[in-house]
Amino acid sequence: MGAYADLTAQGTPTRQASVLTGISRATASRRQQRPVPPAPREVVPANRLSRTERAKVLAVLTSDEFVDATPLQIFAELLDRGIYLCSVSTMYRVLRENTLVKERRRQARHPARTVPELVATAPGQVYTWDITKLPGPIRGVYYDAYVMIDIYSRYLVGVHVHARESGPLAEEMMREVFAIHGIPEVVHADRGTSMTSKSVATLLADLEVTRSHSRPKVSNDNPYSEAWFKTLKYAPVFPDRFGSLSDARAFMDEFRDHYNHEHHHSGLGLHTPAEVHYGLAAAKAADRAHVLNTARAAHPERFSTPDAVPKILALPDAAWINNPANRDDPQTYQPAA
Q1: What start-end ranges are recorded for coiled-coil regions in this protein (predicted)?
Q2: Same domain, yes or no, for 299 and 161?
Q3: Domain of residue 67, residue span
Q4: pLDDT value, residue 328
Q5: Residue 289 and residue 185 share a domain
């Protein structure tokens, strides 16, 4: 608005000034006719202490006699002596102006947690695992499903169901998984009791596997496990309750096989986890490209590009937990609570 006023004051026609500044003439005219509000003036409260009085209050509050006392105690003590300096709130106000008010109690100091940043460019590099509850036959009875996932291929390398949660049972699952699928470079988990147990920590240390843990109260640090649990429990075949521990184990075994070998994963170019895990995705992608090229040759008018493969069929080069490229995105890079 200032530029418009300067142009018109120098004799520039209003129409040209409007074009140059992007301000319509109607808006400029309306603002010029609007009365300018008077500058606000500072009103000094009539009951405000003078500078000398405030200095006197500060000297009393910080004296050797009262330096460790609260303003409330000082106020009462001075009244008993027949002295009134100011109100308790004014004492606090004077202390606050001089940065002398702070929490005296010992406060818990939580150190900043390191954000886990993991990347896998091939199967067998990074495994993530977690435990979820499966409802038992009656209310209050639950079974614990231990699930370990390869984050690159999304392949379920281990699924065990037990009646309780414990570190030795988690160690047993890991030994079986590592014997079948090999020892990974990193194992990631949250900070549950089983995940941080001595038995699991000792096993991974002996095998020289790097341990990685989520930050407290940040579920986004373990996205692959959390997402798979939702896939499991939102599946139409997931029952309201399991009749027994053996029923839960049989269901999880069947669901694991279906997910690994039949589920076309949207994050894997619609390949199954088994195809990616065992290196069959490239051949499958070539077969799909041949089918698409045949269809494109038969009906080119139905395809907007001559030879491009749909993005949904592209297999990502890497799988991340907290990709550093997303640090500026608060939705994908959630800070610790």
Answers
A1: none
A2: yes
A3: 51-97
A4: 59
A5: yes
DSSP codes of every residue in 57-104? HHHHHTSTTTTTS-HHHHHHHHHHTT-----HHHHHHHHHHTT-----
143: how many CB neighbours lie within 10 A of its CB?
22
Residue type at position 95: L
Residue 200 and residue 277 in one domain: yes
Q: Cα 218 vs. chain centroid, distance in angstroms?
A: 6
Let me know if residue 256 belongs to a domain: yes
Q: Which helix (H) or strand (E) segment is 329 a member of?
A: none
Per the CB < 8 A criterion, the answer to whether 136 and 143 are in contact is yes
pTM: 0.66
Closest by CA to 223, choosing from 151, 295, 141, 143, is 151
pLDDT at 334 over 50: no
Statement to judge: residues 266 and 140 lie in one domain: yes
Kindly state whether residues 192 and 72 are assigned to the same domain.
no
Q: What is the pLDDT of residues 16-56, one digit of tens each?
A: 888 888 888 888 888 777 776 777 777 878 888 999 999 99
pLDDT in tens, 47-94: 889 999 999 999 999 999 998 888 999 999 999 999 999 999 999 999
In a domain, 46, yes or no: no
274 and 301 together in one domain: yes
Whole-angstrom distance, CA of residue 195 vs CA of residue 165:
10
What span, in angstroms and rounded, lies between the C-alpha atoms of 74 and 169?
A: 61
Mean pLDDT of 248-270: 95
Residues 211 and 144 placed together within one structural domain of the fold: yes
